């Protein structure tokens, strides 16, 4: 299964994260299938590749709880529901 999750990078105690799509069996800092955004918890900076996220979510990728909260803040799930073919 493909998961949308956080990949840690940055210096010690100055962490930031990339939002990535990767198989659920890969380790946290392994090679991602695709980078879909950036999250910096120190100043709440969020940059998202919304079309890429919508595509992955429609293909069945499951976000982790933290990523789900970030996507809900950015109203990405509304766009997924709006673009679902009838």
TrEMBL record:
One of its GO terms (cellular component) is ribosome. It holds the Pfam family Ribosomal_S16. It comes from the Bacteria. Keywords: Ribonucleoprotein, Ribosomal protein. HAMAP family: Ribosomal_bS16. Belongs to the bacterial ribosomal protein bS16 family. This is Small ribosomal subunit protein bS16. It comes from Phormidium pseudopriestleyi FRX01. The gene is rpsP.
